């Protein structure tokens, strides 16, 4: 019997999915391909999912189960240790092969390597594929054969590379009922998504998420199509204006693999507008973040520039009132407060506002970048293991190719420049012009000077 167990992770789609396509190509009968998703909250070092990501995952798995069902492929759900689940389930199914799409974080790579080494002992072949990047980290090197630490030459190299055309969705293998009938009775059945309790209940935080997102593969393609047809021509200017939000908003679909970067790249290259190149450079920045995480797996929790270990940042426990005001959008700085309220309501914050919000927390309130990164991890629907910490380290100045330490965003000037009529801040702060609105919690000038003094001390200048 030829049966493939296909392990889905952050690749929750059916098109441009090499592991899925090749599994279907080797199938001979209904039931020869069985899909699996494992909710892994036990493997060492694997970071627990944030709340907004859990919400998206629930709906993405519902959608994936339906899409795979149309192809005649059942999706099984399991929670626990994949190192135990995969060998046992493969044996239970009588599978002779396991396939998956590669991951690039340190703990995840360790998990995958262990499973890949163990399965052949059970007589099971293993094959992995690229599904998440245009170019995998080890394929992009400097002239000396090392990893890139600066974005511009990295982008210069990959911008002229051809990642290849996206793969088609496989043809259906037959009715789903025939596939299910061909499988042996499973100890845990197909698994119940509701049992994972991924959706928030009290408060119903997800109300705004539902209004703003369609967390499906089809929803991702619709969003990309709308952006490229209606918005990309104004992207170079509109991307900095949060009131209209001229950004693509495809990042959560990339984070969950409902869109592949190759699909985005290919679709964007069908456009002739010059502004599309700026958009593609943002896809390049995403690639750079994953490149950094692969080569520097300490990225999510350690300053990549060691001199910043001496910076006297405070934890959220040492500055609880400031941190709480920042998370609740009550700092007294409308640009930052609007962003935090948008984040809580929609799971999204405009990138221009993200930078100013992070800068205020780190450089004016003096709170450790890791505290802000953890908050974004819990509240952003697009929070991933590479871009989230890389962007926080960029703002803090402690990462690779980071903003210079003396670049401190002034939220008032940002507001004047990118929201001069107040459309954005008024949309999110109804009490803005009333006595109820918070007073500024920090003196921008004094805190800026203090931050520069700290930076000067750790840099020896």
UniProtKB/TrEMBL annotation:
FAD binds at residues 235, 247-251, 279, 382-384. Binds 1 FAD per subunit. It holds the Pfam family DNA_photolyase. Keywords: Chromophore, FAD, Flavoprotein, Lyase. Its cofactor is FAD. One of its GO terms (biological process) is response to light stimulus. One of its GO terms (molecular function) is FAD binding. It comes from the Bacteria. InterPro entries: Crypto/Photolyase_FAD-like_sf, Crypto/Photolyase_N_sf, Cryptochr/Photolyase_FAD-bd, Cryptochrome/DNA_photolyase_1, DNA_photolyase_N, Rossmann-like_a/b/a_fold. Belongs to the DNA photolyase family. This is Deoxyribodipyrimidine photo-lyase. It comes from Nesterenkonia sandarakina. The lineage of its organism: Bacteria, Bacillati, Actinomycetota, Actinomycetes, Micrococcales.
